[in-house]
Amino acid sequence: MGGQMELGISDRVAPLREKVSQMIENDILPLDGEYLAEVNKGDRWHHTERQIEILEGLKSKAKEQGLWNFWLTDSEKGFGLSTVEYAYLAEEMGKSLLGAEVFNCSAPDTGNMEVLERYGLEKHKQQWLKPLLDGKIRSAYLMTEPDVASSDATNVSMSCVRDGDDYILDGEKWWSSGAGDSRCKIYIVMVKTADDNAPKHQRHSMILVPADSTGIEILRPLQVYGLDDAPHGHMHIKFKNVRVPASNLLLGEGRGFEIAQGRLGPGRIHHCMRAIGQAELALELMCKRALNREAFGKPIAHLGANYDIIANARMEIEMARLLCLKAAWMMDKGDARAAAPWISQIKVIAPLTALKVIDEAVQIHGGAGVSQDTPLARMWQNVRTLRLADGPDAVHRMQVARSELRKFTQQKV
Ligand SMILES: Cc1cc2nc3c(=O)[nH]c(=O)nc-3n(C[C@H](O)[C@H](O)[C@H](O)COP(=O)(O)OP(=O)(O)OC[C@H]3O[C@@H](n4cnc5c(N)ncnc54)[C@H](O)[C@@H]3O)c2cc1C
User: Fold this and answer.
1) Residue 327: which domain range?
2) Do 145 and 238 share a domain, yes or no?
3) How many domains does the chain have?
């Protein structure tokens, strides 16, 4: 692959990174715990007054400093950052619970905004993209279904039938992240619009569905290891005779996979960048604890194999970061097909690396590591889901293996 590979921190992004990192350390991290504790104080699915105060206060501060919508890579509306440059900012944001939302860079909104920007009509942009870009509303992306193995997205079966000037949707979705949030106003939904006679990748479409449409019923919040992630939530949703204007169907019938390819690439790598930030934070906490607590007459750092654990964590984080930056650089070259196996590689490696480092940090902390007194338990739970969300490891490995095998055969692999 030709072209000089620039993976360093550019002059343009260095001052931004410094500002983001300062704001996370001084303003956001100190409020993460209080924000979480507030969830138990009222209706879990509506922000309390204090939560709104915390979030809106931080968002205003970020906006005032121009630290907003960094993810809009190569766009006139954003900073025009490259994916490599954005990686350094996303890594910092990953270190706190609220970081990504404070800078309007959180999942699933960034991916959804890209879809609206690229494929939405002007009226969709006014109604949904604008308030999303302003951080006024939130959104969800509904692909996965309870009744089919959704790691193979060609199985998606929610029915979507044309009826005059409308489409009518019926079926169930689950793991709809963010749909629990009362600010979530718009869903981007993957549906089936053609029967099995159509080519496999032309049977599906994406359609915009307002969250308050008649016939939508939130059946329940799903729990992740017993936690409901309120007020964001991962919802199980039923669609019964849900009617939306035909113009809400994006790009055209049968073009859902075309859109999904564009949407999922950036979203996946953003998750990886934040996971690396979490690994970095876990290593920092591990070192501080290991130096400051003594057992058997010595700081824990000096006991048993703990030097090796710390050294391995550093080496593995560096490897993961370099792979992530290379995948980002491949994306910046603009050939989505060539970048895809690189995104798959880091989509496997980043969560595995972060999980391992967080797990070792938990261990060094003893009982405190699994408690609410450090962010480690929540981080582990969050990163564990990344081995499933946006495609399980096995599916990404399959993509990587196929791209290797294709180098040596003309046949379909
Ligand atoms: C916290 C969380 C948030 C999520 N958020 C969203 C969201 O916002 N929107 C959304 O649409 N979905 C979301 N998902 C769903 C996620 O994308 C799916 O769970 C994932 O794609 C797998 O689909 P499935 O659960 O149907 O598993 P299945 O398709 O049933 O797969 C189960 C397992 O089968 C094995 N497998 C599958 N394919 C292969 C293969 N090729 N080779 C070897 N083994 C294989 C793997 O072990 C895999 O984990 C979220 C999931 C979680 C846990």
Assistant:
1) 257-406
2) yes
3) 3
**Ligand 1: does its nearest atom lie under 6 Å from the Cβ of 184?**
no
Write out pLDDT tens, residues 225-236.
999 999 999 999
CA of 390 from ligand 1 middle (Å) equals 7
Share of the chain above pLDDT 90, in %: 92
Kindly state whether residues 213 and 333 are assigned to the same domain: no
> Hey, CA dihedral for 108, 111, 113, 119, is it positive or negative?
negative
Overall average pLDDT of the 251-272 stretch:
89
Cα-to-centroid distance, 63 and ligand 1 (Å): 35
The overall average pLDDT reported for the chain is: 95
Q: Are 51 and 38 in contact (CB under 8 A)?
A: yes
- Position 412 in a domain: no
Q: What is the pTM of this model?
A: 0.96
Whether residue 294 is found in the same domain as residue 325:
yes
Per the listing, tokens 């939530």 go with 233
- 188 lies in some domain: yes
Give the pLDDT band (50/70/90) at residue 76: low
Q: What is the pLDDT of residue 410?
A: 92
Among 237, 254, 271, give the residue marking a domain's end.
254
Query: Are 233 and 286 in the same domain?
Result: no
Tokens representing 230 are 């309120």
**Cα(351) to centroid of ligand 1, in Å?**
15
CA 77 to chain CA centroid, nearest Å: 21
157 and 295 assigned to the same domain = no
Distance 117 CA to ligand 1 centre (A): 27
Residues 265, 245: one domain?
Answer: no
* CB-CB contact of 51 with 5 (8 Å): no
Which of 144, 173, 263 is the pocket-test mutation for ligand 1 (most atoms within 8 Å of CB)? 144
The reply to whether ligand 1 has any atom less than 6 angstroms from the CB of 401 is no
Give per-residue pLDDT as tens, 16-68: 999 999 999 999 999 999 999 999 998 899 999 999 999 999 999 999 999 99
Residue appearing with tokens 């440059």: 85
- Residue that is last in its domain, among 226, 254, 282: 254
Question: Would 202 be classed as within a structural domain?
Answer: yes
The rounded distance, in Å, linking the Cα atoms of 23 and 62 is 8
